[in-house]
User: Fold this.
Amino acid sequence: MREGSIAVVGASSDKSKYWHKIFADLKAAGFDVCCVNPKTEADPQNNIYKDWASLPRKPQTIIIVVRPELTAEIAAYAAENGVKELWFQPGTYDETSAKTAKEAGISVHNACFMVQKGIW
Assistant:
């Protein structure tokens, strides 16, 4: 297993959804990864959670796969919980949320994690 836990925020347990592919491919590549999505059914055995409080550990990296207007809460959580990296997948970037994260010393990326890390 690779170092550092990753939370994919907005990924779904629905295998037909594109964002599920990010979650599944990270797991297959050996990352310690979980999904956080209040709109999906929790499945802790498969690392799928409805909220931050349910996570077994705090993530070091967060990959955002939700609309930009939904990212403020994610950035605030990251800033308050020692997250080291925040990745905005294409189409999810929000300047205000990015600023919140940067001011907390978080490394912010407006790029595809999967491509940048050579997984895809």
The chain has a mean pLDDT of 91. The helical segments are 18-28, 72-80, 95-103, 113-116. The two ends are 18 Å apart (CA to CA). Residues 18-28 form the longest helix (11 residues).
